[in-house]
Design a protein that fits this description.
The structure is a single chain. The protein is α+β, with helices and mostly antiparallel strands. The protein has two domains: 32 residues; 88 residues, Nucleic acid-binding proteins (OB fold (Dihydrolipoamide Acetyltransferase, E2P), Beta Barrel), CATH 2.40.50.140. Helix content is 30%, strand content 37%. The chain has a five-stranded antiparallel β-sheet with strand order 3-2-1-4-5. A hairpin with a 5-residue loop joins β1 and β2. The longest helix has 28 residues. The chain is elongated, with a radius of gyration of 20 Å.
Length: 123
């Protein structure tokens, strides 16, 4: 027969195990990238948004050739220094290096699965 004290201890252990599993899953999705690459284009929009979790989000216009309709590349930024670089580069042509992280459990880490790791303003 299970006592009340033993049942509460078991429940606490299960909750702790669930929290540890969730923390491990978050760490894995944020530190192991699914893909990496670079995108070049004009930085059209960059802002900090969100109701509770404020994240830096941006939009890059990718142009393949003059006169073509540009494709949009939406991305997230987690580093404040990189966000400052991007704020000063709004409207300019940039080369962005990114990592794609699939399965991130919350939009508190960013609204997209593409996280910028390097910014280079190009002429």
């Amino acid at each position: 027969m299970m006592t009340k004290k033993r049942a509460s201890l078991l429940l606490a252990m299960l909750l702790a195990a669930a929290a540890l599993l969730f923390a491990a899953y978050c760490w894995i999705t944020l530190h192991l990238s699914y893909s990496e690459g670079e995108r070049a284009g004009y930085l059209q929009k960059f802002s900090r948004r969100g109701w509770i979790c404020k994240t830096w989000e941006g939009e890059l216009l990718l142009t393949s050739m003059p006169g073509a309709i540009p494709e949009k590349f939406e991305f997230s930024v987690r580093d404040e220094d990189m966000a400052k670089q991007l704020m000063s580069a709004t409207g300019k042509r940039v080369l962005l290096s990114y990592e794609q992280h699939k399965g991130v459990p919350s939009q508190c880490f960013g609204e997209t699965e593409y996280y910028i790791v390097k910014v280079q303003v190009t002429p």
